[in-house]
Batch of 2 targets.
Target 1
Amino acid sequence: MSHVHHASRSFLSRIKIEEFVLSGPLFTRERPGKTDSRKYEGVNNMEWLSMERWSPYVVGIGIGLLSCIAFLLSDKPIGCSTAFSRTSGMIEKWLRGGIAAEKAYYKKFAPSIDWEWMLVLGVFVGAFLSATLSGQFQFIWVPNRWLNVFGDTPFTRWAVAIVGGIIMGIGARWAGGCTSGHGISGTLQLAVSSWIAAICFFIGGILTAALFFR
Amino acid sequence: MLKTIHKSEKLQLGIGCILGILFGFLLQKGGVTKYDVIIGQLLLTDFTVVKIMLSAMVTGMIGVYLLRNFGVAALHPKPGSFGSSVIGGLIFGVGFGLLGYCPGTLAGAVGQGSLDALLGGLVGILIGAGLFSEFYPKLDKGILNKGHFGEITWPQLFKVNPWSIIIPVTIGVMALLFWIEKSGL
């Protein structure tokens, strides 16, 4: 249902992207001679990639395993918010030059591309691939839940998103991490700081959402 | 062998990117790159976010502590203080409730075409991070270090073997998830 709803508002035909990717040499919906596997597995060999949703537990266990690989191969916990801070520093350096590089915070977190920055870039690419394979990729301004309560004006959604983003950007740096760095990677290490921060993320988020959607 | 991999900067950038692609793929398949799903969690009507986070935490906790027992991984807990973790956490939460994405899921939302994430959230987070760096020297002298407790973990705090915490946490989380499923959330 929501599918139809979105499609009517999309700027770009999602079918075109789906056809573009699925007709490419890498991804085919069905391979000749493999139809028997459907009976056996219940799904076609590649169909799970084009599913719209996976069980949250499959996703969660997958992310847990990714965290283990990150510790093993990169000696790093998965995190995202520092990459935004580095990007901000790169922009500031570009706009203001040397003054930005002298800032104490950027001496601690150099404004340059690192492992975590590449990870966040990867998240963007991975989500694009997943959304395209399931035909969910579409340009939308106003999410459904917002639309039902606050209407379909892109400006209001944009204004609240930018204010929320500013507050989140400050909060993530203030707490030293985000829902990935503290919420998953920190809690799994049983770090005291992360358990406290993660609980506060949700207390703040639940109260704000409750007031906002009242 | 692992040390050589850790030290190769170029290889690390590649590993980071591949892990990110898999992470983003999983986040999108889990539905948590969607505003509706995240706000549903904060409004306590859709527990997808909690289900994903808790199952990731338990899997990662057992895996990473096992790797550590085998001597092939080291922990990197972040330092904390009440001024930083509590106040910062609550500020983050207010942003979370208004934006409806967190930094990681925002990158994923941009990847699936959400323009509110790209032109609103991303721009906002960059401005916020820039503002923070501006006030960092003052904050660092004051509130950020109030009630400092450092890079401590629960097993270190209680001076116990990590597994005597991992096992009860695993059982507790599984019971909670079982209860969530049973209540149909």
Target 2
Amino acid sequence: MDKILVGLKRVVDFNVRVRVKNDGTGVETGGVKMSINPFDEIALEEALRIRERGEAKEVIVVSIGASESAQQLRTGLAMGADRAILIQTTAAADPISRARALLEIVNREAPGLVLLGKQAIDNDDNQTGQMLAALWGRPQATSASKLELNGDTARVTREVDLGLEIVDVDLPAVVTVDLRLNEPRYVKLPDIMKAKKKPLDEIPIADLGVEASPVIEEILFEPPEQRQKGVIVDNVAGLIAALKDKGLL
Amino acid sequence: MTKILIVAEHDGQTLNPSTAKVVACAAEIDGAELDVVVFSDSASDVVVQAAKLDAISRVLTVDSVSSKNALAAMIAPQMVAIADGYSHLFGPSTTFGKDLMPRVAALLGVNQISDIMSVEGSHTFKRPIYAGNVVLTVKAPADRPVVATVRTASYQAVGSDNSAVVENIECTVELPTHTRFVELKSASSDRPDLQTAARVVSGGRALGSSENFDIIFALADKLGAGVGASRAAVDAGYVPNEMQVGQTGKIIAPALYVAIGISGAIQHLTGIKDAGTIVAINKDGEAPIFEVADIGLVGDLFKLVPEFTAALK
Ligand SMILES: Cc1cc2nc3c(=O)[nH]c(=O)nc-3n(C[C@H](O)[C@H](O)[C@H](O)COP(=O)(O)OP(=O)(O)OC[C@H]3O[C@@H](n4cnc5c(N)ncnc54)[C@H](O)[C@@H]3O)c2cc1C
Ligand SMILES: Nc1ncnc2c1ncn2[C@@H]1O[C@H](COP(=O)(O)O)[C@@H](O)[C@H]1O
């Protein structure tokens, strides 16, 4: 295939303990470390490996977001992507708008494969890949832990509740990746310098002619109910007594 | 009028317990009329089980050989074809529902609400985001169908004393051939199912090997418990992926959860926040798991767990 398209979302780093703003309108992101969504890093790593095996010619990373998302695209370029597209929007795009925007890029670039994360770890939606596949009228294979290309088809191992499901999909297709697919490479300093010269196109989302749909309103952000810290017992006898106390033994 | 269509999850023989939990969630919407739809090639037993679910009006059956392996690409167009007249379409947030429902939503041109944990009104719901560190209240537009997945750990299954009407629906949409099921590999086990077990024992990285995991299995057998694991234990290959508990594994709500040699990363804790009682055994008294454990025991698991197992009758 010629091209692989990879979605990179800028999210609060997975190590950060997020805090809800006092007025309940969102979470604090000021001064917080931002990163590529961990699943997306894995998607990019897979795309790079496919290209390095000679099974694809070009890896394009795309992000939908405000101008700061260019940082994550630069990191993607430093990892080895060939070029980047930033779909500019200041509004936090809702899932179907994201999928429609990605579909426009798909129509322009005609990739043989679209690799996305299985979910973004901020909104935990787990929707974009499935929606893109539906709108595109193409196959989806979600939560992939293994991906083999065989000419016009791909064999994907999916992590499902019952174990591992293997499906064959015709290409082009959308594959969303799970954590065990691979271990992403580290970015080296010289690659960061080189990445500065790689092309990064910016397209305002309005230029894509994406039809806006009524979004799901976000009314209130709250911290979850906290569990209370319990007791520490001294030994196994204490544990058994405590369990009996709760009627669990 | 609130009419809710709930997609049944099943394997051709048995209705997955997630379905009865989705029904429980849908039944919390005032005045809603609930239908369950079974897509299958020949799931007569499943239909019988579904018709017993309390609170539902009808079971719709849509028969097609294409539904045999529950591929989203096959079921989504059929679900959309029968969606007319429904104000809500619900599925479980299991791997089946997560695969299917966004595809349905996109075909209907709407957004999906993922992981409903509480119903606040016919179009207002709460859902967890940021690995459960934030609870978000969302409101869906009233003039189009609400497509959603339900966080099954937040709901108790409805009872099964009903005998709902069963109706067969003809559905003749054209289905794609671009997606083909090859195989399902699952490590079958006689132990209670992780997602429905009343008790679960989980092991973490500290176990060190798949052989050592036997002490977890031995304890679980004594307790009649299902067995889970942290991502670190799965990644290290001690146990298969379907045992993973947490943000990217299973979200569970057993009455008793025993975490052994698990540090308590937020991504793990999000999977157990609805557990009744959490027991933690860890040699590090400062481990974050102790912040949420109801009963903590500090020490070496290789000594304490066999001792615990032996002490149980
Ligand atoms: C996007 C994303 C999603 C993730 N999803 C999940 C998920 O779904 N589920 C999940 O579990 N993780 C998930 N993780 C990983 C998570 O962040 C942690 O890395 C993981 O949970 C750690 O597993 P652990 O507690 O077994 O290992 P560790 O953190 O290494 O903890 C091992 C614990 O064992 C204790 N210990 C060591 N030896 C002994 C002994 N002899 N006796 C008693 N105690 C001992 C140690 O004190 C330590 O607390 C995810 C991470 C990311 C980035
Ligand atoms: N704003 C975005 N920019 C680029 N890719 C995105 C964006 N949002 C979602 N995606 C992709 O879609 C996947 C699933 O996201 P979600 O459906 O939001 O959980 C992510 O892992 C990304 O690969």
